[in-house]
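Dear colleagues,

For the upcoming journal club I promised to circulate an example of a predicted protein-ligand complex. I picked one with zinc ion because it came up in last month's discussion. The inputs are reproduced below in full, followed by the predicted structure.
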Amino acid sequence: MILDLNRIAVKILLDIRNKTQSTSIVISGALGPLQDAYQDSTGTVSFGQAREYYGSQIHAFAEEGVDMICIMTVINLDEATAAVSLAQREYNLPIHVSFIVETDGRLRGGRTLEDAIREVDRLTESYTTYFGVNCAHPRYIIKAVRDMHTDVRSRIGSIRGNSSLKSHDELDNSLVLDRGDISVWVREFNELLNMLPGLKVVGGCCGTDEEHIDAITSRIDSVS
Ligand SMILES: [Zn+2]
């Protein structure tokens, strides 16, 4: 099922790219956590299990012709390193690793973002093309990068912010989607743009919509 969806998704994007030759489009095959994205599967999902699950997904992406792989919403480093090692050793594809942080700026379980990036790089010969953070409000990503050593900070190439200031536990139990305050979201996203010299991909995650994206697009246009 998931493999069919992956193949169809890439075919749709290839078709769009063929019809949009005036704009360069990079097609990235996305992997996600193997359990609840807001829970830590460390110790539950092993490196070997992750390699098996992601192996078939990356194989399908590679056969369909993606340009790169990404793994989003990472807490469990075994999932990240399994995906990176597959991209490197089996398919020679670039890969982007995006973590999720909590309201204290740390990964669930207490690991700092800096430590997570260093550890994935250490275990995979720094193969990851760039790192990122998704599904956290820009305010909490600022906490994660503020005191980070500059060599690690420069490894961050992607931010896709959640719209809400609520914790993931609160969001998990919420019956409504929280769009948050867009003016706060954009202001704090702008702060991040100034803190991250290696940033190349920006966007929204849960709770965001075209209004959020339009607001940061205006900002990017003004500095590009
Ligand atoms: Zn999200």
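Two points we might discuss: The beta strands are 28-31, 68-74, 95-99, 130-134, 156-161, 201-204. The chain has nine helices and six strands.

See you all on Thursday,
B. R.
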